[in-house]
Amino acid sequence: MAKGKRAAAMAENRAKLIRAAREAFATQGYADASMDELTAAVGLTRGALYHNFEDKKGLLWAVVEQIDGEMAERLRIVREQAPSPWLGLLAEGSAYIKMALDPEIQRIMLLDGPAVLGDPSKWPGENACLDITMRTIRALIEEGIVKPVDVEAAGRLLNGAALSAALWVAAADDPKSVLSKAVDAFRALASGLLREAREPA
Amino acid sequence: MAKGKRAAAMAENRAKLIRAAREAFATQGYADASMDELTAAVGLTRGALYHNFEDKKGLLWAVVEQIDGEMAERLRIVREQAPSPWLGLLAEGSAYIKMALDPEIQRIMLLDGPAVLGDPSKWPGENACLDITMRTIRALIEEGIVKPVDVEAAGRLLNGAALSAALWVAAADDPKSVLSKAVDAFRALASGLLREAREPA
DNA sequence: CCTCTTGACATACGCCTCGTATGTGAATGA
DNA sequence: TCATTCACATACGAGGCGTATGTCAAGAGG
Question: What is the Cα–Cα distance from A23 to A4, expressed in whole angstroms?
Fold first, then answer.
């Protein structure tokens, strides 16, 4: 056999490059990350890069896709573990805020990603995180818990609020206390979507 | 006289460079904007740039500062013209969303700015827009209209929601209809800050 | 009126980075 | 065994940034 020897090696090198890129993009930022250093760090050259990916931007695409998938998976778990859909929505918000504390996610997904690749709403995988939030909101509307607002609009604004909160917390001198304030404010805003003034369980 | 001849000329060149930079950064993006082309467009060279500003990033700082001031001024006017503080807050949100439809503001202030200069919350001038929103919220809390939430948290999340809405609207194929959905959702979220379920005039 | 200094800007240079074109050796298939 | 492919390395060219150096007009002083 040994039929897939070439392909296996290639997949491994792709993975190595993506790993190195996550590291480099997260610590130095996209613009300041040198492809020479990045590839050399895993024992390759730029030749491997331009063979496996379209260009530097293509590598960023691959990194973004990978991280987006990981974030979506974590959010999915959070929602499934919540005792009710409404609390699931709030838990998603908190989880999103906390995830954005990760410098890697912050730098790559929230700062450089949009600047280099354009608005996240147009990303393939269609921003899996947003998708999950929208699904949750849709379910809550069908249950009559949430006002019949536009699902995509509500999802996007909630995500935007969470994102802003995350950046704030991350840049704060005292992340702990700021985090609780941010989560409280998020809950307050989210309650504006409720049909009844009283929050459900 | 003619004492300030040198200084006046320098100020004028500074202004010309900033104007050219706004144009170039907005249309090509920060990374793809060539300082050679940019300066040549106003009849200067890179020499003038590095004499008037620290470096390329310094020029972006100057541009951001200018635009931030203009945005704050427009928001201030919107708030003053509103018939009530609460409606002022909503009007500010709408105005912010609409402002972000301007490609210049979008690209420079919302995409490249944060990516290159770091989180906006740490910008000098301290993001005048946020400041205005916070002032409005503080007033509403003192009047008992809004829940006693953390002012900065509420302001940041509201701004984040508006920003997210703006990017969504800007990237939409049908901005008109999306804009109304976004504004509706913003009003819904904002109402979550109210002490009473019923919205005030 | 002449000289000297200052400073705003232009010019010239080196270094780095990206993207592509070309080379190469190992894995495949016959 | 030989030819082919292909994953990757090497070599090359273009362009951009930042700095060091040059230059010439505007002011200061006698």
Answer: 28
